[in-house]
Structure to design on (722 residues):
């Protein structure tokens, strides 16, 4: 065996010793934390009460979210030169003394949100020259002081959801690099005019949800300010002094009553102005003159009676919903060629003129829902070459003139029109050549007139993809509808009381083709006749569809459904809906005479007919369509039904009256019985009965009466001597 030389052994020992000196000392992750993978020490919800010690040097992020740490000071942290981000939200920290983070000199972000912070001493963040973001939201701070003194790199400060009451002049005096300042959801009532003077790089100032009742003219040195948000701040006037660079100015949900001439002076770069949910009644004609670049304006939910004049010429979107506007004046938008969207929803507009929207060459959407418009005159929208969407639902329309709408219109909404009749012409319907979506839900009068005009004009609306006819009291539809809307994909017919006679077989066959959707939620069913109620039209055999009955129009004589080609339109009377048959005049006259000539209907015809209808899918007998007195008999039957109903109501009323009288009579009897029980009666020698009772004051009250004699009995003689 070869022996190693002494020199070789010494060399190996020296190598081992040098290796031990030069190898770095690896510090493990604190056992209280979850892990230290990557560059983050994960100590989330670890039940910690204090900050652990001895973190690995490669850790750059310390996360103590959701623990029980209640105190921070300069001894809380070891020297951590590599840590850049510190997160301690959702703990119980109530106070931060000065110099608490001096051992973490390279911090750039600190998150102390959702704690119980009530006090932050001046100089609490001293020495953090690289600090960029401080988050202190959802705490109990009432005053700031100067905790951010010396933080020259601070760019974002989040102080929302605290209890701050005032912003003083020197709160941000040394923080010239701040770009984002969030002071929302506090109790700020006063702001010093110079509070933001030194914030030369300020871009976003958020003061929403405060109590700024004493707002004065603010002064800014920033030429980069983009967003100023005063939403829900109890403002009574528009804050002034905004720099020209502001592009987004939000003043919604305040108590502003008027807009003056100088409220927006110098704001030539403004793009969005939000004034919704105020109490604005007056807007000066010159108020918007400085806003030469304004694109979008929200003035909804105010108290305006007129459309504001002097609107910016470059405006593209205008919302005037929920005001008190009652008309749209003519030639109001002549100089507003860039408007693309206008909304007047939920006003009190009664009239629109043929020149009301003249000049809106680029408008694409007009919303006039929830108003009181009765007429759409010719030319109202026809001169708008870019209009594609028009909303007229929830109005009181009675007429729509030919030439009111442009030919390129793509979507038309006229649902929930309450008028029983709406006058439309065939020219109006045929002008909708490019229409893609038609919404006529819950507008029976409009649908009846429109379908009649469609059939009469023979128009073809092949571009219609969606046609909404839900809840329109439709009993039948003309077969010409299929050819009129050749390209329809969604024909929504939910909530209509269909009468399943043979004139609807074509609709069933169309449904079986499977190319069109006919309902949104409820599959189409029969409402009448009685024996078919609830049966699905699509699954009903052809033999079950009853014969077509002649037109009687007892229920709705003013709204006639359009007649299909070569097929009588079904208009079932109230008697027919109950499964009864209206007999001819000869049978009626024979019953009046008491006779029953051969071939006439007997007095129990109705009962026999109902029994036959309940037995199976039999056809309904059809009365003579040429009988001149059929309508008279129907009217008599309806009158008889009204009399029967009135008689029934009178019976019910009399029954209630009798019941009430009986109750009152029984109440009186019970009272008399109780009174009798309280009396003490005794018979007298003269044949009378004396009854006495004690009153409340203690006196005795007596009454004598002679008992009634039974019929036929003799009256006892009185003692005259006594």
């Amino acid at each position: 065996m070869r022996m190693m030389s002494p020199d070789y052994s010494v060399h190996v020992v020296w190598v081992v010793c040098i290796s031990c000196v030069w190898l770095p000392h690896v510090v493990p992750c604190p056992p209280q934390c979850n892990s230290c993978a990557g560059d983050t020490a994960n100590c989330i919800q670890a039940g910690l009460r204090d900050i652990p010690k001895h973190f690995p040097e490669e850790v750059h992020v310390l996360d103590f979210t959701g623990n029980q740490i209640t105190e921070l000071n300069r001894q809380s942290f070891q020297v951590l030169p590599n840590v850049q981000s510190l997160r301690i939200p959702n703990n119980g920290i109530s106070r931060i003394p000065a110099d608490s983070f001096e051992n973490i000199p390279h911090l750039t972000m600190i998150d102390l949100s959702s704690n119980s912070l009530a006090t932050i001493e001046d100089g609490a963040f001293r020495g953090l020259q690289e600090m960029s973001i401080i988050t202190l939201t959802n705490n109990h701070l009432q005053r700031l002081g100067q905790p951010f003194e010396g933080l020259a790199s601070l760019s974002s400060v989040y102080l929302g959801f605290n209890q701050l009451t005032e912003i003083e002049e020197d709160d941000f005096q040394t923080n010239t690099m701040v770009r984002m300042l969030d002071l929302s959801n506090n109790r700020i009532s006063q702001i010093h005019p110079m509070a933001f003077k030194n914030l030369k790089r300020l871009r976003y100032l958020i003061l929403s949800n405060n109590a700024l009742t004493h707002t004065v003219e603010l002064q800014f040195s920033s030429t980069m300010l983009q967003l100023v948000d005063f939403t829900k701040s109890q403002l009574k006037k528009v804050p002034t002094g905004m720099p020209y660079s502001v592009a987004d100015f939000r003043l919604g949900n305040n108590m502003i009553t008027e807009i003056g001439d100088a409220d927006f002076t110098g704001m030539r770069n403004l793009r969005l102005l939000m004034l919704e949910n105020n109490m604005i009644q007056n807007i000066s004609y010159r108020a918007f003159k400085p806003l030469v670049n304004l694109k979008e304006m929200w003035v909804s939910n105010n108290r305006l009676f007129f459309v504001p004049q002097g609107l910016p010429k470059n405006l593209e979107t205008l919302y005037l919903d929920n005001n008190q506007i009652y008309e749209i004046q003519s030639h109001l938008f002549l100089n507003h060629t860039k408007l693309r969207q206008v909304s007047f929803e939920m006003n009190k507009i009664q009239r629109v003129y043929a020149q009301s929207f003249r000049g809106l060459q680029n408008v694409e959407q007009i919303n006039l829902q929830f108003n009181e418009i009765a007429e759409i005159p010719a030319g109202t929208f026809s001169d708008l070459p870019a209009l594609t969407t028009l909303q007229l639902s929830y109005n009181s329309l009675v007429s729509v003139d030919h030439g009111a709408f442009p030919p390129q219109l793509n979507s038309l909404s006229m649902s929930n029109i309450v008028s029983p009749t709406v006058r439309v012409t065939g020219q109006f319907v045929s002008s909708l050549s490019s229409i893609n979506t038609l919404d006529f839900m819950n507008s029976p009068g409009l649908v009846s007139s429109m379908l009649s005009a469609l059939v009469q004009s023979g128009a073809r609306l092949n571009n219609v993809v969606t046609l909404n006819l839900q809840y329109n009291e439709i009993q039948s539809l003309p077969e010409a509808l299929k050819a009129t809307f050749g390209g329809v994909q969604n024909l929504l017919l939910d909530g209509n009381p269909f009468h399943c006679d043979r004139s609807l077989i074509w609709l069933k066959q169309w449904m079986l083709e499977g190319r069109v959707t006919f309902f949104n939620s409820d599959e189409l069913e029969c409402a009448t006749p009685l024996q078919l109620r609830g049966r699905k039209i699509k699954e009903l055999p052809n033999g079950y569809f009853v014969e077509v009955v002649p037109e009687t129009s007892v229920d709705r004589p003013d709204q006639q459904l359009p007649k299909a080609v070569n097929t009588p339109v079904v208009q079932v009377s109230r008697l027919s809906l109950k499964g009864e048959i209206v007999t001819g005049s000869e049978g009626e006259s024979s019953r009046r005479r008491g006779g029953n000539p051969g071939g006439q209907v007997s007095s129990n015809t109705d009962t026999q007919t109902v029994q036959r209808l309940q037995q199976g899918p039999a056809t309904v007998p059809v009365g003579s369509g040429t009988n001149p007195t059929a309508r008279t008999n129907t009217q008599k039957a309806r009158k008889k039904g009204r009399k029967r109903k009135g008689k029934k109501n009178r019976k019910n009323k009399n029954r209630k009256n009798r019941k009430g009288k009986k109750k009152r009579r029984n109440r009186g009897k019970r009272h008399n019985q109780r009174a009798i029980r309280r009396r003490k009666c005794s018979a007298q020698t003269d044949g009378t009965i004396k009854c006495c009772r004690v009153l409340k004051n203690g006196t005795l009250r007596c009454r004598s009466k002679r008992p009634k004699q039974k019929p036929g009995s003799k009256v006892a003689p009185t003692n005259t001597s006594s």
